[in-house]
Amino acid sequence: MSAVSIVVGVLGGLTAVLAVYYAVRDLSADLVLLGACLVTALGWLVLGIALGAKDLASAGPAPDRVVLYGYLLTALVMVVGGGWVGAFERTRWGSVVIAVVCAVTLVLLMRVHQIWPGGFA
Amino acid sequence: MTAPRTDDVPASRAAREPRRGRGLETVLIIVYAIFALSATARSLVQVLTKFDHAPVAYSLSLVAAATYIAVTVALVRGGRRSAVARALVVLELLGVLVVGTLTVVDPALFPEATVWSVFGQGYGYVPLVLPVLALVYMLLGGRKGPSA
Predict the structure, then answer these.
(1) Which sequence ranges are marked TM in the entry (chain A) (predicted)?
(2) I need a labelling partner for A29 at 20 to 30 A (CA). Which of A40, A63, A107, A115 fits?
(3) Complex-level ipTM
(4) Domain residues for B89?
């Protein structure tokens, strides 16, 4: 689980940096940046499924499920929504939105670790 | 990296070309939408599961959430020159300042944190900075006229 979480963090960070680069160069989101967004979203999906499977299987202390799955869902919706906005906002500000959204997912990832440390043990 | 350039075009040309987007306004809308989502989710969980624990704090959480939703909707519908959006952002700024001050002066009122506690400390002080930036952007944008 920790490995998946690290991958998700790295994906989110790289996509955010790429989006900032696009914004600085005054580029709107192209298929490379949108693809990075999509891969980050897939990473969150995998993390969510993996945590859900662990939650079902584990006998240890249960997580605060509403909050945990709320965060996972929020992250997924945000990355997809950010990519959506980036696809339709054909200015540098579309790239800024992707950067903001990906940066926020890093905070969400940190919070997911705090909400259910057992999920990553 | 062969993305199209988005260099600023003269206003006369921009008027004839199809709109490519709302620009910075989009970012503002998205940031407000994220806050609306997170504040609403947080306050709903608090109010539904443990309202008696801290009624004042949780009620204010709901108010904060409603404010963020209202600003998001006003921005989407009216844009940055919308008077409603401007009034709501002023309300939001007042809320952050009042709740922030209260949490510092009388922490006992707030046994649990809200979005606006200690001027939005738990959210990297973004709740304090956001309305100020939004107001500056709205006022500057309003002066440029309808073509900006």
Answers:
(1) 6-24, 31-53, 68-88, 95-116
(2) A107
(3) 0.89
(4) 24-143
